[in-house]
Amino acid sequence: MRISSSPSPALGSIVNQPTSGELAAETPLAKASLTQSGAGGGQAFVQFGQANDSPSSFSGTEQSGSSLMSLLTRSSSSESTSSVDQDSDQVSPMTSVSSTASASPTAASNPANAPSATDAAFLDNSEYSSPEALKRWEPMVANLPPEEREQAAKELNRPIAAAWMARENGPNAEKAMAFINANPALKTAVDVGKDGGNADGKITNKDLKAFAKNMEKAADNADKDVAKYMEDNPGADPQSLEMVRSAAVMRANMPLATAADPHHAVGAADKTDVDGNVSAEGLKALIKSNPGLSGTLKQSSNMWSQAGFLSQVDEAGLTGRKKAAHSPDQVFDASNMSEWIRKSAPKNGGQFASMLSDAATLNSVAGIDISKLNAQVFEKPKAYTGAQKAAVMIKLQQTQQSVIAGRDLRNTEKTEAGLNERIAQLQADPDVQEYLNKSIPEQERSLVRSDSALQKAVTEQAQNVNSGKALQTDLATADKAVDKHNPDPDYSGAITGLSAQLQLQKDLFPDAQVPTAQQVFNNQPDEVQTKIADSYVRNFSEGGALKQLLGQKKSDAGESLQTADNQKAAYESVLPADFVNGERESYTASTLSELQNSKKGRKLLEGKTDEEGGPSLAEQLAEQGIGGKAFNSVMGFASVSDRLASGDKLGAAQSIIDSSRLGAEAIKGGIDTGAKMMGREASAGLGRLGGQMIGRAVGLVAGEATGLAAGAALGAAIPVIGWAIDGAMALGFGISAIIDAVKKHKAQKAFDHNVDPVLDQFGIDRAH
């Protein structure tokens, strides 16, 4: 049956017809990947931003990939400068490193002896670039047309081929050494190949062999990381796959990237040792000063030098006490990159949209100096700009992540309450909202422009999203996640992911007519609509979702209720209202029944959710003068979004069943991502709600009360804004179990050293 009353009309256009554009990368291989295959052979250079003409029509399932690419090519002069004046930090388009272009001399080489890129043919066609040797690069070039992959792999293999060839006797060895000397990052990397650390200008055969082996090992490890990701995520979207491919290129070239910083070179002022870390400065130098290196590598370096992306990799793999002792330092190592690929990389389009929003948020405040700011920001907020206050907010959110991770090291209750209060004030600040709502879309466009292959992937996924193909893929992935403990598939992640991706389209293509999630749903086949409706009945009308959540080990009844409510709100953002209203009574009855049938649920009803006890939920309701039918209605825990939408603030508060263990915070994830919230604030970061949501979330400070009292303390709820919707933006990608790998006292000192300076700076109680 068709759940929606009628199919939506043809979906609106994505962006306007282009006139011209510029590409983030200029290598022939990169250009070829973005060239239209249709008649005329016009180049489809993707440029994201505003357009001036009226939107052209677009029909979701009929739009071809090439014409969609054409729709995305218009550039916007208004994008020429960043909202935070960051252009000086952006990497300029790199020059071609193909076999037909010349390489400019560098300070690290003798101009008379510097090889041209044409000379790289002797490496590309050597025995060291045999088909067997090139196999390790196959995952990194798989996104290219088949006829271009071999040459791209040869370019990536050049450092290894040069190192092996330089160990020979004869003219080829001299040519290989000239190539090495002409590329400073390669020269330094080979110099420290055997012993690491200090580059002394003396390259030995042992250095050459060690470097080649290190590169081969790094590439092989990158292959393993990609293989693991593909095994775990067979339904990953094109954008996520492109991010992983780019990360793999970086992982495979870590011996080069770690040596690329000019300060590591022989004779450099303020010379530093190669320490295994990669910085944005090093990546930018790799792009600018190494004419013989691969364009694919330079494109990857361009992407990961962006502050937003770099910060996310910086903290990949850090959990527990390690996270508690670490603040983002804008450098990463090989382990960070592998951890990011295997555990933190987006797995679907919704998570990609969330990750891009987080990265854009970090980009928006990169370079804003807050070192001289203090608690006056909160006492006299009008004296500071939206950009300054936004930067403070992000810093506090990052600090909050470390504080939460250090809960077993210190008593963090007062510190968390103070952080929550400060963060909530800044989230509600109109200047902050105005600044971020303008700068985040700009930075999203800038980040996507940083890699031409990513632009192509974003274009492809936009077509998949609007046609419903992406939704159906995510539904199929959810179906495969069922097991004996979780027999009912949860489609809430697929639906919130759809909303997040549509919001991303609005950010990337501001003049587009982007469909709503409900329009996409209404245009799906009957079997898809019925599938989602049947799942709603099983999970909520029949109580399946709450039963599964309450049955999990170490689950909390209050958190389980809120999680189920988050899931339910996602379904209701696309299902017809008459269908949902028809299930209300069953939902109320099943929810109360599951609470009564569960020991944890009964404890919640009786007010025994923690060691200190606290008033029962029934007592709290009675204090509000609620009884009889109204009591039973509230006990149904109707979704927060529904009650807020109807103006029932008390009812909304009653629905925020927050356990006393959550202290001063009220979980705020999963608000209806459809038309019930304002503009772009609804969906940034929503991609993580289906499984990666942190138990504690920032934003709505509810006081010290528990249960309904906590919700009631909300009063006039501040807006839930997109860049905070998934709990401090989930920077660092979540909190994991604490591992007791070090002595507590030592860990406490490291924790204090990490968080105390920020807490002191902004007048927040220390966790001592």
Automatic annotation (TrEMBL):
Compositionally biased spans, kind Low complexity: 44-121
Top-rank lineage group of the source organism: Bacteria
Pfam families: T3SS_HrpK1 (PF16937)
This protein's name: Type III secretion system translocator protein, HrpF
Region described as Disordered: 1-127
InterPro entries: HrpK
Species whose genome carries this gene: Pseudomonas syringae
Bias kind Polar residues: ranges: 1-20
